[in-house]
Amino acid sequence: MNWKNFIKRTLTGILFVAVLVGGILYSTVTFTLLFALITGLAVWEFGTLINQSGKAVINRPICGLAGVYLFLAVTGFCEGLYGGEVFVPYLIMLIYLLVAELYLRRPNPMGDWAYTMMSQLYVALPFALLSALYFYPLQVMQGGTPTVAITPMLPLSVFIFLWASDSGAYLVGSLLGKHRLFERISPKKSWEGSIGGGLLALVAAWALWCFFPIMHLWQWMGMALVVVVFGTWGDLVESLLKRQLGIKDSGNILPGHGGILDRFDSSMLAIPAVVVYLYTLSML
Questions:
Q1: Under a CB-based contact definition with an 8 Å cutoff, are residues 59 and 100 in contact?
Q2: Is the full-model pTM beyond 0.90?
Q3: Phi, psi (deg, nearest 5) at residue 248
Q4: Predicted local distance difference test score (pLDDT) of residue 173
Q5: How far apart (Å, rounded) are the C-alpha atoms in residues 53 and 132?
Q6: How far apart are CA 45 and CA 39, in angstroms?
Q7: pLDDT at residue 141, as a whole number
Q8: Rounded distance, CA 40 to CA 142, Å?
Q9: In Å, what is the CA distance from 215 to each residue of 129, 143, 146, 204?
Q10: CB distance 108 to 56 below 8 Å
Q11: Is 107 helix (H, G, I), strand (E, B) or coil?
Q12: In this structure, are 67 and 197 located in the same domain?
């Protein structure tokens, strides 16, 4: 074992979790600042990968600015500070990115457009939807009276379920993993590991229900399963993307862990799926 790399990876992981948990729980301001920064870095990292691959060229500054603005706009809209007009500047930036390609005379305009839109739909939008979870209005009982509550535990729980799933998948997969889950894209993933990750995520859901009974146990359990399934797909999507680009890690901003996209790959599909899950429940 490379102990130097292990220690570096462990310390980075602890710091990463501490910053993420602290930023989400401390205040709305820290949540907003943290994920606005993460969104900008993630979109910039995605743009760097695409530009270096030679498959297409995207405008990293405008794409990054658009991604950060989308996150801030969704946050302000969900918080009730602004109406739908807050999205107008974002739409203007998207229109600019599309129209600008007409004048640049690049060899692959279709690829440029496709990856430009992917930077927004695949990277920026999931982070923006974290605000929809942060400000999701829960119906809870307080002193025998139904009331509306907003809690940062909803966005944080997505990451808790992902961490539990990854830990369970690693432990069970290392010991019992024999049947490959998706060998063409990720040879190390196994069905046994995925099941183990799902079970540990359900345990985490039970623990969250015990300490934060803001939803019924079955709702917590359902949310955990949604995160596990779509988180696994999210991980596979990024693995396929990296395979197509011929790279191992998306970056090196996190020593021992790779880039921003490497750390949030599972959440790219898990976050939108949880938003759909919760808002579907609210309509029942």
A1: yes
A2: yes
A3: -95, -45
A4: 81
A5: 33
A6: 10
A7: 47
A8: 38
A9: 20, 16, 13, 14
A10: yes
A11: coil
A12: no
- 3-state class (DSSP) for residue 189: strand
Which of 109, 135, 161 is the C-terminal boundary of a domain?
A: 135
Domain identity same for 117 and 174 = no
- pLDDT for 3: 62
Domain residues for the domain of 255 are 140-284
Q: Provide the token pair at 186.
A: 């990720």
Encoding tokens for residue 157? Answer: 């729980």
How do residues 178-206 score in pLDDT, each as one tens digit? 777 777 777 778 878 888 899 999 999 99
Q: Are residues 75 and 202 in the same domain?
A: no
| One domain for residues 83 and 144 | no
Measured between alpha carbons, how far is 272 from 207 in angstroms, rounded to an integer? 23
Q: Which of 58-72, 78-92, 100-114, 168-182 has the lowest mean pLDDT?
A: 168-182
Average model confidence (pLDDT) across the chain: 89
Q: Would you say residue 101 has pLDDT above 90?
A: yes
* Burial of residue 25, with CB atoms counted within 10 A of its CB: 0-12 exposed, 13-18 middle, 19 or more buried: middle
| Of residues 198, 188, 257, the one with CA closest to residue 231 | 198
